[in-house]
Amino acid sequence: MNRATQTLVAPSLSTRLETERLVLRPARSSDVGRFRQALRENATHLRPWSAAPAPGEDPASLTSVSRTILRDRTEWRAGQTFALLVFTRADECVVGRVALGGVHRGAFQNAYLGYWIDSKHQLRGLMTEAVIAATAFAFARAKLHRVQAAVTPANRASQRVLEKAGYRQEGLAQRYLCIAGRWDDHLLYAMTVEEWSSRAT
After folding, report:
1. Domain at 17-200: CATH code
2. What pLDDT band is residue 180 in, cutting at 50, 70 and 90?
């Protein structure tokens, strides 16, 4: 039975991915404070790469963060999005987030990868470590066939993360996503399970 026809059950919300320096897991209600603090401290850092919030909405408010966690857990159970908070193993500080969103099953078996890392933890390879762990989860646990990501040409750091993780560039999509209130071109990257298996051997 291939991935396009098998019956799939969403991985458990108790999922915990461990790397040399990180722990990745779904957010819980007890994470609201730490998650909110990370968002507030990185608001300026993330603004150029994020969709603009609705007028009057603060993505780092207590209400918004609580709703995000509730939505993430609901969509995880439905197999629609697998969002993971990224913690340091040393002090259990929230340093980022990796999400496999927009999961499509059927003939596609695809998810869209998105991620961010705390500005104070950049240039240490932590995001690459987290993306590799999330990609392994996508193929081994979520049973996807393909993971793709979109990055603005100006975001060279994010491109390097994908390249180091083994993703290949597929091309340029013009006016692909509305980021910070503007329709921006994006470079598309992708990896299939066959490529992942080849990389792992």
Report:
1. 3.40.630.30
2. confident
